[in-house]
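Q: What residues go here?
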């Protein structure tokens, strides 16, 4: 077994860990650091349950080798908010019933959190170019339901709470536009 020492900042806290070079970020988070909010769904990068951010970019942690992000900042669902203070997205998921079984919720919220940052910086999606140009907000494409669905397409909800998830994200995006 070949181990390598890496240094990461996880949810604002510096961490130095000796890990097997074959370890995924997901396994590091769950098994070594006991941050179990990030879920292992398909373990093939297809469902989005393990979505976290690395240096403010969404990644599926089940396909990300931990050694490949040495020196990076990682944010998990535990870093977004918790019982002492929910993030607006977490509150919106509760208010709009954006989950049923809850298994995908941490990945959905982590992905939506990053997606709202991507939108704020002006990133476009494939839907941004469909049909007539949607209204813009401060020079950006408005987050219509279709925009949100496209931008969240990598996150699967087996219970089918998609409409409520879109409503929750839309509510927060609306608050950010105001």
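A:
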């Amino acid at each position: 077994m070949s181990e390598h020492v890496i240094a990461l900042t996880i949810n604002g806290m510096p961490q130095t860990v000796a890990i097997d070079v074959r370890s995924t970020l997901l396994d590091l988070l769950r098994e070594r650091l006991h941050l179990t909010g990030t879920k292992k769904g398909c373990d093939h990068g297809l469902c989005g349950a393990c979505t976290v951010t690395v240096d403010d970019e969404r990644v599926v942690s089940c396909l990300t080798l931990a050694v490949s992000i040495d020196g990076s900042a990682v944010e998990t669902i535990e870093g977004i908010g918790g019982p002492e203070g929910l993030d607006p997205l977490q509150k919106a998921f509760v208010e709009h019933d954006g989950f049923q079984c809850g298994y995908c919720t941490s990945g959905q919220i982590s992905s939506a959190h990053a997606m709202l940052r991507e939108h704020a910086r002006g990133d476009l999606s494939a839907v941004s170019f469909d049909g007539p140009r949607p209204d813009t907000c401060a020079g950006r494409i408005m987050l219509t339901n279709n925009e949100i669905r496209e931008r969240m397409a990598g996150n699967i909800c087996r219970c089918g709470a998609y409409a409520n998830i879109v409503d929750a994200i839309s509510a927060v995006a609306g608050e950010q536009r105001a």
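A: Context that may help when evaluating the design: Helices lie at 25-32, 77-80, 88-95, 105-120, 145-151, 162-177. The domain at 88-177 is CATH 1.10.150.120 (DNA polymerase; domain 1).
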